[in-house]
Amino acid sequence: MADAGGREAIAAVWRIESARIVGALARYTGDFALAEDLAQEALAEALVSWPRDGVPRNPAGWLLTVGRRRAVDTFRRRSALDDKYAALARDLGEGGGGSAPADPARAAEDVLWDPDQIDDDVLALMFIACHPVLSREARVALTLRVVGGLTSDEIAKAFLVPTATVQARITRAKKTLGAARVPFEVPPAEERSTRLGSVLNVVYLIFTEGSSASSGNQLIRLDLASEAQRLARVLTRLMPNEPEVHGLLALLELTAARFPARTGSDGEPVLLEHQDRRRWDRSAIRRGQAALARAERVGRGLGAYGLQAAIAECHAVAESVDATNWERVVLIYEALGRLAPSPVVDLNRAVAVSMAQGPAAALSIVDELAAAEALSNSHLLPSVRGELLVRLKRADEARTELELAVRLCDNERERAVLERKLTDLG
Amino acid sequence: MKYILIMRATDETFKAYQDADFDKILESMGRFNDELIRAGVLVAAEGLDDAAEGVVVDYSSEPPVTTDGPYGETKELFNGFWLLNVSSKEEAVEWAKRAPLAGPGSKCEIRRVPSIDEFPQDNEWIQKERAWREASGQL
């Protein structure tokens, strides 16, 4: 099966090798966009020749040799126009330029497969794919393709958009990077922490997209969530001294631990308070706790991801909603609100306050948010306000809030939950 | 998706391994494991002790017969495993092809590891197993 060189087998090789191949070619040519094209051409060639000739003994070496040869061809073509390319073509041309790879592994591997460089290549690839000059959609698509080894088709399926859209995003992204003359390198230390924020954000976006149970093919989207976890794991190994990298991994593990319990038998979302905690994945919780402990051990304090992970940990270790250490949750939300102020964080803090100190204390936070007209288009604020008013036995006001929440809510399942609360009010 | 890569070998393979440099074996295994960790796919891995120290229970007769040592001279033995979290069976196969196992008769068997969610949830024994998995972090 695998040795016959079927598409699936080639896809498997590609998943494992693509980051290193694109990375090595980018280092070799100094041109990320070109490297990505060359790698895709090598993959296309494999799809033609492996099913015919069988998978080579060293598939990565084969792909790299083809990519490198195409690079030389490209430089030769361009050399007529440009002296610099002419010089490169001469330098790179030795031993290359034949038609079929005679010795797939040798020449290319010696030059490019430098084990000391691979980690830096993959890291540089992550930084370039998540570069701030790109739109969020472009960052996500580029990261999944060049670092994750997903095809444009797979990315399109996961995001429920046409393949052509994904391809256009990637093409435009590469042009943008070229126009901005973004170098292929791990950013210098002084820039790294700002740039790292974008990398972590992209991994988080991939995870949330994959974990949203809203629509589409469930399986593919869960694969996307697990790809994000894998990327986070790879990052913790590449950047072990960055607390937020561990914090993000902890958050993803602790969130994913709840996946088995978050939908009911007919697919409806089950809120945290109603989840069967016995269904939570204990080993994911343990891995999340371990990652959180590593984030703390780095010793520079937890960032926004680490703090969210710490909140998730409070829930993970509690046997029930009532047994949760809500005072601690409130404190962590306060820290999070100072670090990354957002009305959603304040709203969550209000929910935690209602659990720790009762609905009256929480209502004043929610009222402030309402007065500031924060979240005015979201159903979240009236949902929470309505719930607090229900608990305070102010039924008429609660009804008004819940009706507003129903009007603003565009998710059918969530709306059903709100409507049920309205019915319960009588 | 979880897949288990089961190492299997024959007497011949063992003989070859006994003659090999142990440091080299440790190095090649270590490099492979490091690759799996770098790729973010390794869940667990264990190697098994000498088969001659093992015991075999044979159910051919009633009651079963217990004998010391390995299965026999030519039968294949289970020597250790890697547990990987990968996106497809093909990816598991691709990793297996890179494992530093070599020599006549040396094999790696690849099997998917179903999650407990795939078993009937209303079965009391499955529920008991789930409870144990929860308590011991084996889910």
Automatic annotation (TrEMBL), chain A:
Residues 127-177 form the RNA polymerase sigma factor 70 region 4 type domain. Gene3D superfamilies: 1.10.1740.10, Winged helix-like DNA-binding domain superfamily/Winged helix DNA-binding domain. One of its GO terms (biological process) is DNA-templated transcription initiation. Keywords: Sigma factor, Transcription, Transcription regulation. Residues 195-295 form the DUF6596 domain. GO terms for molecular function: DNA binding; sigma factor activity. Residues 20-79 form the RNA polymerase sigma-70 region domain. InterPro entries: DUF6596, RNA_pol_sigma70_r2, RNA_pol_sigma70_r4_t2, RNA_pol_sigma_r2, RNA_pol_sigma_r3/r4-like, WH-like_DNA-bd_sf. The keyword Transcription applies. Belongs to the sigma-70 factor family. ECF subfamily. This is RNA polymerase sigma factor (Sigma-70 family). It comes from Amycolatopsis cihanbeyliensis. The lineage of its organism: Bacteria, Bacillati, Actinomycetota, Actinomycetes, Pseudonocardiales.
Automatic annotation (TrEMBL), chain B:
Residues 1-108 form the YCII-related domain. It comes from the Bacteria. Coiled coil: none annotated. Belongs to the YciI family. This is YCII-related domain-containing protein. InterPro entries: Dimeric_a/b-barrel, YCII. SUPFAM superfamilies: Dimeric alpha+beta barrel (SSF54909). It comes from Amycolatopsis cihanbeyliensis. Signal peptide: none annotated. Gene3D superfamilies: Dimeric alpha+beta barrel.
